[in-house]
């Protein structure tokens, strides 16, 4: 029995066993819009499982240059995921960007226009792929079902890619969590929940959606800077 056949059988067995993601009791926390090595360590010190590093975007907060992204990614400790938020829509450009930045996870905030997720996997073995779905209505469920087999996780956010100047994250707005819960129940990959989360609403969001992870940017910041007190309050609500 060759190795390729064994891998195929393993994927088939996992697919049969994992028909939906169950409610996660204590979700992971991703702190996004990290702007410095100090902010990364502050987030990790509080217990973040992932940090988000925002590259060039058409709008929204937290953008830093690729040199700084690479410096931060290089010091993120083992066991913590470094997410590169990319608005690029062609596979070749995304592959080149990941190689410059050295992150272990790609967060694709827009739809691929050229190339496929399979191209990304072939070029970057071991790099996790997370597709953002902007939950503007019921159509988000179909979009999530279509992309789930191609990625390692889905992140549900509150942007609007249809605007003349696209909103691809960091809006500070919540969305319809009932739709997010339906997506979580329907797909067989982990779900991260983003969009307007803060210490006042994250416990309710977790109760309603049951995500694998939660993602926060502006909700733990003051004047654009990571606020240690807000961060502590947020984590208290997640783990409490």
Class by helix and strand content? alpha/beta
Question: Any idea of the CATH topology?
Answer: TIM Barrel
* Helical coverage, percent range: 25-40%
Shape: globular
SSE arrangement:
Layout: H1 3-17, E1 28-31, H2 37-46, E2 50-54, H3 66-75, E3 81-86, H4 91-101, E4 105-108, H5 117-123, E5 128-134, H6 139-147, E6 153-157, H7 177-186, E7 191-193, H8 202-209, E8 213-216, E9 221-222, E10 225-226, H9 228-239
Parallel strand pairs: 1-2, 1-8, 2-3, 3-4, 4-5, 5-6, 6-7, 7-8
Antiparallel strand pairs: 9-10
Helix pairs in contact: 4-5, 6-7
Which features characterize this protein?
alpha/beta; TIM Barrel; two-stranded antiparallel sheet; eight-stranded parallel barrel; disordered N terminus; 240 residues; globular
3D structure, described in words:
The structure is a single chain. The strands form two sheets. The protein has an eight-stranded parallel barrel, surrounded by seven helices. Strands 9-10 form a two-stranded antiparallel sheet. It contains nine helices and ten strands. The protein is α/β, with parallel strands linked by helices. It has a single domain (about 25-240), classed as TIM Barrel. Helix 8 (about 200-210) links the parallel strand 7 and strand 8. The model is unreliable at about 1-20 (pLDDT under 50). The longest helix is centred in the N-terminal third of the chain and has 15 residues, at about 5-15.
Entry summary:
The protein is of the alpha/beta class. 38% of the residues lie in helices and 18% in strands. The protein has one domain (25-239): Aldolase class I (TIM Barrel, Alpha-Beta Barrel).
């Amino acid at each position: 029995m060759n190795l390729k056949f064994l891998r195929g059988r393993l994927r088939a067995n996992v697919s049969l066993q994992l028909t939906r993601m169950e409610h996660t009791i204590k979700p992971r926390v991703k702190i996004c819009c990290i702007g410095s090595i100090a902010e990364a360590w502050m987030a990790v010190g509080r217990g973040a499982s992932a940090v988000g590093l925002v590259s060039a975007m058409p709008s929204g907060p937290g953008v830093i240059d690729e040199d700084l992204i690479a410096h931060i990614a290089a010091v993120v400790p083992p066991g913590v995921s470094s997410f590169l938020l990319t608005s690029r829509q062609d596979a070749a450009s995304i592959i080149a960007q990941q190689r410059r930045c050295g992150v272990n996870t790609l967060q694709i905030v827009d739809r691929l226009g050229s190339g496929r997720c399979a191209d990304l996997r072939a070029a970057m073995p071991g790099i996790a792929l997370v597709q953002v779905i902007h939950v503007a209505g019921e159509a988000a469920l179909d979009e999530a079902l279509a992309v789930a087999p191609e990625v390692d996780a889905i992140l549900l956010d509150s942007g609007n890619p249809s605007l003349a100047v696209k909103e691809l994250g960091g809006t500070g707005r919540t969305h319809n969590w009932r739709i997010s819960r339906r997506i979580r129940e329907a797909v067989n990959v982990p779900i991260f929940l983003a969009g307007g989360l803060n210490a006042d609403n994250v416990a309710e969001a977790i109760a309603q959606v049951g995500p694998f992870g939660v993602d926060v940017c502006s909700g733990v910041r003051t004047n654009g800077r990571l606020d240690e007190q807000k961060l502590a309050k947020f984590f208290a609500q997640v783990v409490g």
